[in-house]
Design goal:
The complex is a heterodimer of chains A (216) and B (259). Chain A is mainly α. Chain A has eight helices and no strands.
Chain lengths: 216, 259
């Protein structure tokens, strides 16, 4: 069993790298298009809606294949890592954008009225009043999405990236020791998911500090 | 120059088929403390919300300090105002809400500082000084670094008053400021408003159900019914010798609820 670990660890590292970068870029997409969807600018709004619907409505695998195998035929070539991160982040960003939009919509109207009465501009009201209140609402669903993202990274093995799933597959081809290898891989994914959950819990506590002060 | 600060000129406001304000004529003078009373649905809160630019009007013109609030003058004609005009007009108005509407994610101090810094462009230091003066005035100096949820309703509303005052409005609108409070907390808030009324030349427009309070602090009481001013006058006259039948009925129902 210990013989498998170095190779699997190398794979796990790729998986973590993919997860990290695609979550980061995905978060950016979430905010950009989530806010864009609520924008008064019609162009930004339509682009955001189109993005969200297209990437939620098609399969991640197809998106990944399209970016990695179809785009080069149109002259856009990128490394498997870049293609993987791009596909993952665009996909997770589309779901995240809906989370952002929903959380902002859940901020009650009277908060906007108070902001208006204090003469904040609509943009200031969004950034300083609505978003900080929406942020704690977003974190639990974001946590789900990040774990979803971690598991989705396994698909990149199909565009030649040697992530954890890829390593597992090659080891199995070599040794036929399916039980040990897949059990190990299962636990490794699970361990990484636990880690992410813990990080999100910490973040939730930090961002939502003002909400935990209800007792008087 | 007239000393009229707020003027509603034949203002009509509808929500769908329901007419909340009907051809309303209504004036408030500089420094005047006016209380609006009336049954629910009479349009009294709407008057404040229209003034705070939270509700647009359908007909008529509202003037604040001689300038149309919801309109701009273009080539001698009044056209619906753009956001820039509304922002400029809002500078002279402030509002205290029934549900306080404090920003829950900010400490009391930041609730008071945020708008003066971001909107008026005050330095943090100046804004903080202003905040501390106001907190002292409403008796909450020691609560500055708490979050709103950690305060009682009465304390929250006093923060709400301080927050509105931090913008130095000319007119302060109070929308049923004590209606959401437990009875034992009402007194503290009323005391602050009363002090404000006595010590400042601030123009105040209050919607309230506290009749004793209205009697004490108002220069004038307006009884609203069905979207118009049904009767108005000095508090003594309105409360002791109301002329209008509907005013009499309303006051009787409010002051003697058990009969």
């Amino acid at each position: 069993m210990w013989d498998y670990l170095p190779a699997l660890m190398q794979g796990a590292w790729i998986t973590l790298e993919l997860t990290f970068w695609s979550t980061l870029a995905g978060a950016f997409c979430s905010f950009f298009f989530g806010l864009g969807r609520g924008s008064r600018n019609l162009l930004l709004k339509s682009v955001s809606v189109a993005y969200i619907e297209v990437f939620r409505g098609t399969s991640l695998l197809v998106q990944m294949f399209w970016i990695f195998f179809a785009l080069p035929l149109m002259g856009v070539r990128m490394s498997p890592m870049t293609a993987g991160i791009l596909a993952l982040s665009l996909n997770i960003g589309a779901y995240g954008a809906e989370v952002v939009r929903g959380a902002i919509q859940s901020v009650i109207r009277s908060q906007y009225e108070a902001a208006k009465a204090l003469n904040f501009t609509p943009r200031q009201a969004l950034w300083f009043i609505a978003l900080p209140q929406a942020l704690p609402e977003m974190l639990p669903p974001f946590g789900n999405l990040i774990i979803q993202n971690l598991k989705d990274t396994a698909l990149v093995s199909l565009i030649t990236l040697s992530d954890l799933a890829f390593r597992a597959e090659s080891l199995r081809n070599l040794t036929q020791d399916s039980t040990t290898i897949y059990t190990l891989v299962l636990f490794m994914y699970f361990g990484m998911a636990l880690m992410l959950t813990a990080i999100m819990k910490l973040l939730e506590r930090r961002v939502g500090r003002w909400r935990g002060t209800g007792a008087r | 120059m007239t000393d009229t600060l707020v003027k509603f000129d034949r203002v009509t406001k509808r929500f769908g088929d329901f007419t909340v304000l009907k051809d309303l004529d209504f004036e408030v003078k500089k420094g005047e403390k006016v209380t609006i009373i009336g049954p629910s649905g009479s349009g009294k809160s709407t008057v404040l919300r229209v003034l705070m630019t939270l509700e647009p009007i359908n007909e008529g013109v509202v003037y604040v300090d001689g300038r149309p609030l919801w309109h701009e003058e273009k080539n001698g004609r009044l056209v619906p105002a753009g956001e820039a005009h509304l922002r400029e007009m809002r500078r002279s108005l402030g509002m205290v809400f029934q549900q306080f509407n404090l920003f829950p994610h900010m400490t009391v101090r930041r609730n008071l500082i945020e708008a003066p810094v971001r909107v008026l462009g005050l330095s943090r230091k100046e804004a903080n000084k202003r905040a501390e003066e106001l907190l002292a005035m409403v008796g909450l100096t020691d609560q500055a670094d708490k979050y709103p949820q950690q305060l009682s309703g009465g304390q929250q509303q006093r923060v709400g008053i301080a927050r509105a005052l931090a913008m130095r409005p000319q007119v302060l609108l109070f929308d049923e400021p004590t209606s959401a409070l437990d009875p034992e907390l009402v007194g503290d808030v009323l005391k602050v408003i009363q002090q404000l009324a006595e010590e400042h030349d601030l123009t105040m427009l209050l919607v309230t159900h506290e009749m004793d309070f209205a009697r004490q602090i108002s220069d004038r009481v307006c009884f609203f019914d069905q979207g118009t001013v049904c009767e108005e006058g000095p508090p003594e006259q309105i409360f002791k010798t109301p002329k209008n039948q509907r005013t009499r009925e309303f006051l009787h129902a409010v002051l003697h609820p058990n009969e």
